[in-house]
Amino acid sequence: MMPQQRRRRYITCTVVAAAFGLVGTQSFAASGDVRPRPWNARHQADIGRQHVKMVNSRRGASAFATSEGDGGSDEAENSAEGTAQYTEARTAPGVVAPGAYGAAWQQLQSMQHSRGDWDHVTKKAYNSDDPRYRDLNSNSSGGSGNVTGRITGIAADDQGYVYAGGANGGVFRSRTGGGHWEPIADKLPSLSTGTLALDGSKRLWYATGESNTGATSYVGTGVYVLADPQHGQFQPGGRVGGAELESTVIHALRFAGTTVWAATSRGVWSHSTTTLSGPWQLEFAPNPDYLPGGPKASDPSAPYKNIANDIAIDPKDPGKVLLAVGWRGGDTYNGLYAKENGSWKPAAGLGDLPTSSDDIGNVTFGAASDGSRLYAIDQSPAQMAANPDSGLKGVYVSKNGSPFGPWTLVADYTKLKASGSALQGEGYMPGIQSWYNQFLQVDPANADHVYLGLEEVFETKNGGTSWITPGPYWNFPFPCWSIDPAKQTGDCSPTTHSDQHAVAIGSYQGKPSVYVGNDGGIYRRPLNGAVDSGGHAKDWQSLNDGTIDTLQYYSVGIGKDLTYGGVSVTGGLQDNGQSILRGRDKVMGSNFGGDGADTITDPSNGCNIAEEYVYLDMFVTQNCGVNNGDWTTDPAKATEYEVAPPDKDLGGAGARFIAPITSDAKDINTWVAGGRHVWVQHKGFAIRSGTEWTNAFDLGAGHVATAVASSGGTVYVGWCGPCNNQGFTRGIAVGNADGTGWHQLSLPVDGTIPNRYISGFEVDPANAQHVYVAVNGFSRKWTEGPGAGTGHIFESKNGGTDWTDISANLPDVPADTVKLLPGGGLALGTDLAVFYRPAGATQWEVLGKSLPTTAVMQLRLGPDGKLYAATHGRGIWSFDVRQLKGRND
User: Fold this and answer.
1) C or N terminus of the chain, fewer CB within 10 Å?
2) Which of 225-239, 289-303, 439-453, 625-639 has the lowest mean pLDDT?
3) Looking at residue 886, what is its pLDDT?
């Protein structure tokens, strides 16, 4: 077994996650590249736990240094492995035909809504550096300031209008150069952002389908145009062309004359910018047999066979075009393509810019507005496979602006590392996630002034001869850093969040600024801003003021706030730790760092919180994580404790990336955690060590839990293994928390419950034999594979011996979470909406109004009588179930 800090690194590509199309880890296996790739990188939460070592040593050691045997994993691994697992839940056991999500959205439009409105709980600023929460496992004081969820598209004009697109949150508009945001795309069927662009007529183009290989990238429904972006809102009727780009992700839009080019997961397409009707034209797909309708469309590797990343167009001759095509994990078709004698051929002889399939992976171009320069970033699959430190092949410039060069290398990862980067540690240097993090932006007034985005923000003012790092990963490695704000020197200025995805330049009141989007939201600084002696910017401003909420929650917990009154609301987030919003708070804080996953919160005391990092690595606090950082000099003052069950040490073999944890519905002190084993502990929030868990049941070799529920000591556990399309198997185990009575339910492949991912349970508090189960994925209508089956919600009244499909009129969309409401009504959270079935009814309706179209990952009832929804792209929302009175509830 590999040491935990040296787990395998997977380079996968999410072509679908909401199952518009199809994807799975089988495509990675099909490439033949399944070698383990060890490294010693650290993830944010792990580094947070090393702060005290850094403070005490001060010997110049990297903040990324680790102690032998220290657990955890790294950011690049998390992004890639999380990608596969999130997708598996929605696609296994087969491949999903394009259009599945679109059909569900159409049905949703005609459904009746219940009475009542949803309230937006997390419409507040979220301060990742909140000085109240500087306990052992927090990243507070790193310098990112106010954050929100991943921003993957930005456009800006010279009148102060800025447009920001959330990974799964839609488009927001600011009229004041950033801040005071308003959503303008909520009427569209997809809120997943590929890119945003303003054309020469100042129309705003919105390409849906997030192009990142993150754990939760959703495909889209095409490209939309807003003629008056300063005042209007996107409408479904504003889609360009037909359904040609539905169920794709879109990496880039590039304009040339009256033509727009789109680089998508299904090749390169073009369309007129003057006539928006009529179909998109397929310009080039390297492997057309794998496209929808082709003879190999159902091949498991089909989603990876036609990936295009960007387009470069010669400013002097729009007929000369260079296409960057290829899967970032590597394939023989990877390369740069140019048209020769009417057909697209691999280009060669471009100078320093590689052209071989081994060295062309994810590529991004950036052109000067006057056409005098063209820049490129290249991620190399071959280097990623061989070099544990970075996958960045290089940054290049064509000094005549032509995509055909000659190109000159102006930076590699070692040069960027020496330019003020915070990434100095072995196994985690600039470009380690260049398959996930890339942007380029050239100053329109100076073709030698360029902003480069990888994990960090880099800048050159001399065409790449030298670089600085105005936006370092965080401030922890620098001498100026202190966990005590009063002890930081003036050189430790605020920085951006890590993991860069989008960039734009715009002006407000005559002052030009650069805007960057990353896993923590959107930030701004003057285009020619000030830097300190280390080349780190002094003038970053977070624009995440709370009016833009694109937070990507996996979970939500609610408990009474015994200090301030009301309730405390908390939840685990993609790359933004765990948020906490207490009774009187005007700003949310972050009490746990890294990736937040599932959570357990004491309903009677909202400061009793357990949170999961990833792979079942759990931490607990009994004071909300409140700490001023004194633990750095006196470890006894830490009030967060690692209490992970032993399966954490098995990595992916021991637990899912987001593993299920819960407390018993009738005993808050009995907890159940699901990995390969079913773990139980009875000390509640007083637990202090992972050794205090008891192994109640072994699910079996290769099996890992996907959902757990417990009521009165009766435990239900859903599991899968294998969890991808190759041999997908699922099951349900039932037993008692004391370790007795455990057995596997009989769930034949062709049985009532379909052979798909078990995503959630709900146990009737009056009768533990009465249970509901939510099933992910799509029905047989859309899924090709053995035993795909139908239905999304099932009921058993005899402990799982028999099941009844109660899906009735539900849209065919992945179901994630189910919750019984007071009075007997049932709520179901899906990838589209929350649905509601009144007590005694058989038909479903949409629960309330105002909830944006986005994935609902978890539903929880609070002690205040409200239902809380953790959405993966638009924050946390609440619904007062008393609004349903008069409907048999």
Assistant:
1) N
2) 289-303
3) 64
